[in-house]
Amino acid sequence: MLLVDDQELMRMGFRMVLGAQEDIDVIGEAADGLDAVQMADKLRPDVVLMDVRMPVMDGVEATKRIAEADTAKVLVMTTFDMDEYALSALRNGASGFLLKDTPPSDLVSALRAVASGDAVVSPSVTKRLLGRFLGDGGGELRDASMLDVLTEREREVLVLIAKGLSNTEIARKLFLSEATVKTHVGRILAKLELRDRVQAVVLAYETGLVRPGDA
């Protein structure tokens, strides 16, 4: 994996935590977004752990370029006062985001999930973030007619994805097999031309299918 943060002490801390894991190798470090894009292209890491506010090029633009080139998955790090950056990163191809005070065990689990092709979606943080910039008047809703391509069941599944449920939890709630849920998720992403579950969550909120505070 590639570590990207303009603070050397922060990179050192992450490197110490991740270096203790047998299945995680830190193959490079970058102090700004431009360097991150170039190193990702050269080193081809499975995952880039990306800060957002950096000199030369911020993490949002770097995430966009890495996602467009499909050189690596990007997991964005943010703090509570930088929610807008995190949302922008998600819209530009990040596979998830974490808060910088995330416990080490959760960070490791998130990196493994992203490396395996999953997206990291924290229901509580996602609702707060999208509530601030979408549901609470911070942004205009998108045309929900794009969801008309979905079947009724697929819409149900999308709602539950947006609420942060895993495939196993969705299967249990809808009385379906996990394989069936996985098929529905794949069809939703294909029909809506979405990269992963994170973008599905963002779209569900942006179209008003799910609103912050929904149970």
From TrEMBL:
Taxon lineage: Bacteria, Bacillati, Actinomycetota, Actinomycetes, Pseudonocardiales
Protein's recorded name: Two component transcriptional regulator, LuxR family
Domain HTH luxR-type positions: 143-208
SUPFAM superfamilies membership: C-terminal effector domain of the bipartite response regulators, CheY-like
Modified residues (4-aspartylphosphate): D51
Biological source species: Lentzea albida
Pfam families: GerE (PF00196), Response_reg (PF00072)
GO molecular function per UniProt: DNA binding
UniProt keyword Phosphoprotein, yes or no: yes
Span of domain Response regulatory: 1-115
Keywords: DNA-binding, Phosphoprotein, Transcription, Transcription regulation
The keyword rRNA-binding appears for this protein: no
InterPro entries documented for this protein: CheY-like_superfamily, NreC/VraR/RcsB-like_REC, Sig_transdc_resp-reg_C-effctor, Sig_transdc_resp-reg_receiver, Tscrpt_reg_LuxR_C, WalR-like
